[in-house]
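INFO worker-7 received task bundle
INFO bundle size: 2
INFO processing item 0
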Amino acid sequence: MMIGMSTSSLAQRFGVSATANKPESAQAFALCVGRKGLTLDGLPGIELTLVPCVRIAGVWHRSTLEHAQIAGDTLTVVVGELGVLKLELEGDLFALSFEARVACEVEGLGFEGVAQVEGACAWLSNGFQSWSQSGVLALGPAASPQAIDSALRMQGDLELIRGGSELSWWYTYVGGGPQSLFAGALSARRFRSYLTVSRAEASADSSADAGFALRLISGATGERVQLAPGQSLSSECFCIEAGPDLHGMLRRYGERLPSRRRSHACQAQAGWMSWYELWDEGLNAQAVEDNAQRARPLLERLTSLRKPSPAVPPYVIVDDGWQQNWGDWEPNPKFPEGLAGLSRTLTHQGYASGVWLAPFLAHESSVTARAHPDWFVQGAVYMHSKRGRMLVLDVTHAGAAAHLHALIQRIVGWGYSYLKLDFLFAGSFEGERQRAVTGMEAYRCGMEIMRSAAGEDTFILGVGAPVLGTFPHVDAYRFGFDIAIEALGSAQLGPSWVFIANQARSLAARFFLAHATLLDADPTLLRTLSRPEVEAAALLPAMAGGALFLSDDLRVLPQDRVDWGLSPQLAARALSGLSADPEQLFVPNAPASLANPVMEHLTAKNTQRVPLVWRMSDGQRVALNVSSQPVEVDGHTVPARSAQWLDRALKK
């Protein structure tokens, strides 16, 4: 298994853009390899020094750089008797490889060091997957190794309600003053990657800002790769950029991420989906057909300004509740004509058809799980909050891989050209598989199987999906937490302003990913909330620019609510494929940890911190006030829990 870096360029090896398309004003800094390690030079007010490290059998190993060998932009250093670390730099791209001298088990590779950024007071903490809490936090003290390890081991529901102070998954930025620093992984072929940021302590004899500690790590989240003497292993590819133009850095990062959109660009989709009021128990074929009939004239009006033309028909998405069981993906008796029959009916109504499934999971009681226990990852379980214990499909098992391929082909064959693939994070869980691969390697394998089975023309939405490693295989990405939650026991969740504010916070942390894929916002829900809240919520799809779906039960929705917040102009923005940009990325008085939207809903609190002013893709500016108090913006009073256009009133 020779898995180290080859002689081709870093960009070619990792499938990323070779250049960041930096403006001339951003060329003042340079990453350099020298006796101190990886350093950043040329920008006043910014300093950075990173040294390589490797984790073997639970221990991080570093080596003095005094005897490092430097050849051009490559640094080589010996790590005791264990092996050799090689740092390779190409512009602002860099990666690390380790060649073993003895048999060993490598768990992670990375860089650690210190940095200074003038005026830095906050940083971005990004979550692992679609639903994971993400947002800007105050720059604070370092978390303990135990707290970091605990955060790395969290997965599923525990990870999605993260506080975030321990680490950021995949990328981060640091700033708040005149300068900013961005760092992030560009690939996820073998390892999960994360970054830690913490304020460093000044020495007792110095009053100067001590800056912050920074770590960029691939792995160390449960991965284990066995190396024999002479074998090598590479980290994921990272990039670093610094300067005054943080928006430009984020745009360039999004442009460089490996993505299907580069070669298979497609339109953002519109339609009606069943989940957010029918849920699973209220779903049946008749309810879908009735809602589709009522939604058609509304969707035709909303999409009248859609570009480019001709547009695909609107979709009806059949969500959770159609299947016999999780893992037994055949229609249940609530669909007497099957999903194929429902698709034919929807086609007659002028729709295209879409369907939801969680392809990597099977309930332990399912026929599939009981008949094929060897198809599942040993030691990997997802505990669903309502349905209980789920097993994870091992796509490295030939039988399981063939099953997954046949499943996707069968569903597409029923007439479904839109696949909402959910709970995808489970495919990346570590565990014992038939082949010795990491969780992210298995995830990539599973996504490749499903794309191959679906064909190039099938639209795939990734939900509950890792931020990196997903875009090469999907057409759209759900970027945030659910806009409403099904009632659990006596807890009545449903639509809530807190969930709207939370989705806006997620968009602020991920808006630039629209340069890599379509960003899918949850539907605008027209029931129960006040009119200003509904109209503000309707901005989120327009700000994300990657989808426009409805999800109320239109059979019972009061007619006077049907037009709240909805207009062809907003719909055109929602289907433009372009996201809005928050004008200020660092919110004032950033919190120490991220608020949990479920707990805030249950306790009637709202402490979500979201950028106030956004610039839409067409240049118009809008203020989104998620707080419970009115605010003043550019001479406008924006009431609590509402939005207001700042340049001119939006024409309906």
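INFO item 0 finished
INFO processing item 1
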Amino acid sequence: MNTLQTGQSSAGVAPLAAGELSLSAPRAHILLVDDQPARLLSYEAILLGLGVQCVRALSGRQALERLLEQEFAAILLDVNMPEMDGFEVARLVREHPRLERTPIIFVTAVNVSELDRLKGYELGAIDYIAVPVVPEILRSKVAVLVELYQRRGQLQAINAELTAARAQLTAEHEKALADREAQLQAVFEHPTDLNAILKAERDASGAIVDWIYVNANRNVGVLLGRPRSDVIGRRMSEIVPDRADEGFATCKHVLESREIVRYESEFGGRDLVVTLFAAGTEYVVSSAQDTTEQRKLQRELLESDRRKDEFLAMLAHELRNPVAPIANAAEVLSRLVPLQNQQALVGIIQRQAVHLGRLLDDLLDVARITQGRIELRREVIDVVACVRLAIETAEPLIRSKAHQLTLTQMLDPIYVSADKVRLAQCIANVVINAAKYTDDGGELRIRPYLDGQGAAVEIADNGIGIAPEFLPRIFDLFAQSERGLDRSQGGLGVGLTVCKQVVEMHGGSIVANSAGVGRGSTFTIRLPLAEPPATAPPVVTPQPHTSQRVLIVDDNRDAADSLAMLLRLEGRETLSAYSGEEALRALRPFNPQLVLLDIGLPGLDGYEVARRLKAIAPALHVIALSGYAQLEDRQRSAAAGFDAHLVKPVDLEALKRALAFASQR
């Protein structure tokens, strides 16, 4: 049996050393493995121009040597090779801890059986490519893997820097605490603590009338702004007259009750933690620690966490920009490309764009929740309506895996006070999670019901189940259970966290149950009931007017042009502008009826452009395009004169409704 062992290779190319990551994209290397040199040359020619370094291996053993020498973004591996075939190479690669996550694409010149294909996926392959290789397919697959490899390297570098910064702050914080412990050991005469001993001053009847400083260390005098000798022997009412009443009562309570009292205070611009305790029948010891620097460190740690959350939000927002033109282009292609096999490719692009958009939504929601910026727009709704919206969201995944979905029907509505969109998103996250971890052809069951004085929605599956040790952590941020190599649809590990947070914001709860691995799982969401709503008049959806002139303003040319193409297919006349200034210049000549305006424009931003457009043409309908969708974002766009606010990547149906309303107006 061959084994893959870490060691120094004769080729002299060392593995990447820890700590060598930088924010620049790492150079991607692709390992090409085939016993026919001509094929290797053809693969290199196909990949030319992708900016990758191709490394050849003419056998499985040579491939293993190359893998020990350096890191690769992907492996293009021939299945049928003498001595050691591709399956054996893949097995050895997956057994090595450093290489187990390296993507493998199998290349085969013969038709493989479904059993062999499953074997390949179990060994870690992410895809199969048949010979003769279609250059466009190979280039696109490798390009995606290279981009993921480079993004992973960049994120690792960022995480390393954040971890180092946090470690430094934590070390400083721990050092401050250790210093504080050392100070307490010196107790009274420690150079940084403020320690004083006070004696009760009594009148002839024995009642306490004041407190006298019988001793005080140098720091007390410094804080009070007077020499130590000027403190000792003086009364509390003389030393701190503005705090004498409060201090008198606290000291009296400590002496008589024998309790230890600890409180925080601020004096002379310093943060203090004061401890009072009795010493004998007449004395109270006052020990105060200066925590100004400690508080400063805590604030710095909180600021570091805040910057991390802002980074997550900004990352998710910025990644929306490339998703929008991808989604638009896919929609255009779906209407222009007639061939069935090409339509399938378009479908892949559309589904993956939706999946990427959902991941970005999860990232944004996590950042908003941790920053306390998420707000609910409640209304009294039937919980079944949210269930149906959730099913619509999860339906493409359910259909692709041929799952049998059963929805229990309710005779009467179950009313809750909830944010319809957020609650539907929560239920969809659970349904999608169930679909991901249920084998093809499995069963999903959704049951809304009355549970005592509350509403409940139960989502059950007969999938892979949940290990008992993982159940307590299933709602933790970024928590993911161990999955087989064929479980390739796992997300970021934030969907269930978002779901739990949002459900709890509604005053509800969510629990997960499973009999164990391989025995399915059940998630139950519970919410308080609400009074039935008053009957509202039906909403009339306006019909679109297809002769609109639409001005599209976005500095991302791909996003603007792809959206323009899509609207032209709808029968509208469009014009693209790539800056605020260009939009203002085009207003008079083009005379648009509606403007789709990106907010995040360089130079003259979308808010200012909207104000100027409205000043010139008050009746003009202006719709904001933005990666931000919180209540404060919508309020700010409305204040700037926008008539509507759409979130990137724009949902086509939402855009159609906005255009139709604008037309009627």
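INFO item 1 finished
INFO post-check item 1: Residues 10 and 69 are 9 Å apart (CA to CA).
INFO post-check item 1: DSSP finds 18 helices and 22 strands in the chain.
INFO worker-7 idle
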